[in-house]
């Protein structure tokens, strides 16, 4: 009964735009977005986003529209408008270097950009209006007659930038099909959203979880809560949860692992029923011991639409938390180097197939072909599977467990970084002859990227500022160690094990005040 | 507080040392050293705040939840003292 009622809400939807349109019709007075200052009903969200979408259509904005924004209602209205215009959303951070953002726009041929605040390096960016006309009628200057298109399942919904090992970022293009599949599974199968939920938007605009965390509630008539700006937002999380009546939120695994035992009981006491997590391996004790609050651990690369597998924590959950089982319409394979399935329980690389695969890396068919392989196990010939680069093993209970990377991709505070991209940019710094970078958990202040350099010694500040014009902040090393020569192993490659032992991590790094 | 209990500042120092991976540096850590310059991130600051609230059984007030409160052992100790009153 419950299931049939749930599936009735999603039946026949081709993309999440169809679900949004249904909610605009059947829940106009419900609150769609809430901040401490004001809230927006579904009717208001409908009106504001439709007006902006019509303008994009009328201007022939192109298949991909950029969005430079922080956490704010305008950003969410912008995402909805872009999707309703039939375009894909390309989110960008105003904190990332202009050089990098401009390169991304050029790479995908994006010429139209929306923003929530003026952008120095892009004066053409159009500011998003969050008030608009107070009546049901569009203002005379808006092209109200323009029909909004209905996007198709294989049209791109969003494009996101991720670190690239060759030194340049990759832009992953993701079609509607996978996001809709995840959103439906979240509602019908895993209870990640209920109509009476208030979901707090905690993730960065530029990570794909935002598409799930913000659009999923709106597809089912729930409310998205947005915190005010200001310093130390993470420390304010409990205040925000109480002030906005939050019932569900995402907490990155990098926070939940170490601090879950302190944080979860407080969130539960504040009325939170659900904590979604992911972004890196969840590693922490007692994450399933709260009666009134459940933690759902999601796993999946951007290339497979946010999350391909989910695991709900319970009282028996171990500290190294499993990544769970595939959602509906997603297939998982654990394969060896010759692409043969490994025996159940053995470690191998995770391959993902079925609904949810990205179209690929925009503008890079070669890179796409290297990671999205023909699927030899598909029932229908011609399908693809994505090589995640993650090692996993299958437990007897049907849950997968993450077992490390096959390459040197790292996660720092949940941010995905190809060490190769950091090293490439280090080598491009003035004076640097050779460079290696490592993630060290034991550096002062907490986990950090440590750079080992050979060349003409220069102050840290100069390196940091030079790297800052190319790389996002999380990719910039916090500690620099200069060496006379790079240690090599017998194969003649950089000896990373020797490097990892080299710095006494208990010593403060050279830029700390004397 | 009984005389054999550690002072607020001593307890804060030990929590800072533990949460910020400063074990080898602990004896040189001065009460007014800038923890943000020593590499504290917003993530480790959150952990520090939670452990301070748990240890002293307090909840820091809204106005204390800013970067300047967590700048040094001195500023943290002052915030703890004032929310215990």
Automatic annotation (TrEMBL), chain B:
PROSITE patterns: CARRIER (PS50075). Residues 6-84 form the Carrier domain. It comes from the Bacteria. InterPro entries: ACP-like_sf (IPR036736), PP-bd_ACP (IPR009081). It holds the Pfam family PP-binding. This is Acyl carrier protein.
